[in-house]
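Obj.: predict assembly geometry.
Materials: sequence records (below).
Method: joint structure prediction, all chains together.
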Amino acid sequence: MMGAQTSAAPRRMTLNMGPQHPSTHGVLRLMVELDGETIMKADCEIGYLHTGIEKQCEQKTYQQAVTLTDRVDYLCPLSNNLCYCLAVERLLGLDLPPRAQWMRVMLSELTRLNSHLVWLGSHALDVGAMTVFLYCFREREDLLRIFEMFSGQRMMTSYFRIGGLALEPPRGWQAAVRKFIQAFPGHLDEYEDLLTHNPIWIRRTEGVGRASLEDMLDLGVTGPMLRAAGLAWDIRKAEPYSSYDKFDFEVPTRTAGDIYARYQVRLEEMRQSARIVNQALEGMPSGPYTADAPKVVLPDREKMKTQMEALIYHFKIVTEGFRVPAGEVYQVIESPRGEMGYYVVSDGSAKPYRVHIHGPSFGNVQALPIMVEGQIIADVVATLGSMDFVLGDVDR
Amino acid sequence: MLPDELRGFPVASSVDNWDPSVIVGGRFDRGELTLWVAPHKIVELCRFLKDQERFTRLSGVTAVDWFPADPRFEVVYHLHSLEANRRLRLKCRLGADPAEIDSVSGVWRSANWYEREVFDLFGVVFRGHPNLRRILLPDNWEGHPLRKDYPVHGYKYSYQDSGGG
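Observations (raw structure tokens):
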């Protein structure tokens, strides 16, 4: 809390939180008007992390723009890769082989775990439970090693490319993922031991940060916060993409709509994600990991060195990219935070004419004032944590 | 006027029945339904769609700049009906001077920030918006970066003038 100033009304005080404040999870500025400790009015200001990603996308070829999508929501880069690639693949009319689709599902779910672990750790830390943070980041480290194994990068993976995956899945990936996912439910139990019946945690979270389902829908909230308020809406079920319809999982819901319910929903989601990863491990189809589209997908290295045709395609793709038929697509997926949408407009050239990124955090943060108004100041930090937004996703 | 091939879509035909003059064009492409609608009716249309067709969610508002074409801007609304599990895209064509359209923030409160973003990055003015200020860029920023005639390095910096390096 950087500074405080008194306002004209005698007992009212305006308090400025952020933009540089650890508990706002990035650079969010919050201005709250207080009467004593009660928040009368809250207002937030965003944009401190705006990097013009949508403008930059227009300067890149379609494939190059994948690397920009990593940087939007940096806690789930693979979800962003996936949403963008699916949009462009729909514009191109590409069908992906099952192995690529299943691999995408598995890694998206591991990304969801990664994102939820950061949420749980930092949220609990905000409310004063430091141990949980250390435990969550221990498991997150294992996940980042798995991502590094696949893509060569811990965070900015860019592993999903238009037309499939960037690289062949590495040797030994099954063992690494299996080791992690078999141990993971036990780790979840550990977190639950620390929090679920912890009286301090319950008193800080139960009945706090509530908003009605109608208000949240009207303000653009999506994802776990809606499910914690009783709406069983998950895009993986409602509008399945990348063969999610072949997986067996449940959409956890709660009805209380408070921070504790959000905590329960996300923890249950982690268990469901682990289920999906297990199914992907068991049933992973064999076959190619990229689509059969030589004008879009870079050729195999060996082919490029031995076949004239492959060399030409390689040269064309690298120097000028590939042309995408004119049209527009709004692709939505269920990111760890809610509805993520990529609106891609093509004018028939090799660069996207317009890429609009609808990040779930943008709508979620918009509902912040109604969740904190009428509460006490100490609950703001707990509420912020439970919303699980990423400022890169808000500001783009 | 509603194109004949879209008569099979219940949403399109019910909008057409509600007011035949509101639809100026439409397309069904790659599984997505798009309706071009008359800009001056956007608020009434959105209210109709929300109340009668149960499009309870506004998934987003954005714009596309077709510079130097005229009309230059397309404001794009992505609507979503949870009950019917259905999505709909509305588009309004707007000329550059002035690029103005009525705000739908009275229909869905979420439009408040979405429209502010379009105002900030494209310079489209939403009439009747409760708080039409820049949202992502600083208040004293010049220009609207997502316009096609806005250079990617901004107006103020030129790589030519900086003496290289």
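Conclusions so far: Chain B is about 20% helix and 30% strand.
To do: check interface contacts against the pulldown list.
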